[in-house]
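In this section we walk through a basic example: taking a raw amino acid sequence and producing a predicted 3D structure, encoded as C-alpha cells. The instruction is simple. Fold the sequence below.
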Amino acid sequence: MFWSLSNELVRNGIASAVWVVFVLLARLLLVRLLKVAEVSQPELRRRWLVQIRTATVLTLAAGLTVVWATELRTIALSLVALAVAVVIATKELLLCLAGSLFKMGARAFSVGDRIEIKGMHGEVVDQTLLATTIMEVGPGRLQQRSGRFIVLPNSLFLSEPLINETPGGRYALHVFTVPLRATDDWRTAEKVLLAVATEQCAPFLEDARRGLAFLAASRYLETLAVEPRVAVQLPTPEELHLVVRLPVPVEQRSRVEQAVLREFLNRWSPRGPGQG
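The resulting C-alpha cell sequence is shown next.
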C-alpha cells in the first residue's frame, strides 16, 4: 500500500511539473507575440499583459487542482472531521462563552443582584467567562442566606429564563401572602396588615420611591407606585389570602417580612374584636 501511495505521489508530481512547464511556456509565447504585434495604444498592451498573467495563474490553479483532486478531497475531509471533533469536544465550553457574551450584551445582572434561574435562587457574588457564582437564598420562598455557594455554567443563561429580583438597585418590591380561613374577619385583618406594612416601610419609603422612579425612567416605564398594598385572593371557597406588596431594601427582605408578620399577629384576632 505504501508503494502504491508513493507511486501515485510521484505520478502527480511529474504531472504537476509538466503542467507548470507547459503553462509557463504558453505564457512566454503569448508575451512574445504581444511584443511583436502592432498595438497602437500602450494602455491596451498593458491590459493584455495583465490578462495573460491572470489567465496563467487561473490555468495553473485549475490544472493542479485536477491533478491533486484525490489528495485535496482527502485533506478536506480530514479537516472537516477535525473541525467536527473540536466542536463536539468543546461544545460546553463554547456554550459557556456564548452565555457570557449574552449576559454582557443583555446586561441581565451584575454582582450583588439577586437572581433566580431553574429553581436556583441567590445573590451574585462572582462572574467569569465560564461560570457565575451565587450565594444561595432560600430554600423556597424563604429570604435567608443558606451559606452555600452555587456555581452556574454560563451556558444555562442561553436556554433557561432568568429572573432578576433586584433591577432597581438597592430597593425592590417584595410580595408575600398571609393565608386566612374564609370565616375569619378578613376585613379587619386587611386593615391591620396594611397599617403594619405602612409602619415598617416608613423609614425608607421615600428612598425606595426615588430608587424605583429612577428605574422606571431608565427603562421608559410608567412610574411605579411604591406605597404598601394589600390584595385579596380566594384560591378555594374555604380559604382566603391577603397578598402584601411593599418596598423593601433588598438585603432586608426577610427582616421586614418577619417584622410585618409578627406585628400583624400581635394586633389581629381571627374572630374579630371581642370574639377571641
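Looking at the output, two observations stand out. Helices lie at 2-36, 42-67, 69-89, 91-106, 156-159, 186-201, 205-218, 253-267. The CA atoms of residues 20 and 49 lie 19 Å apart. In the next section we compare this with other chains.
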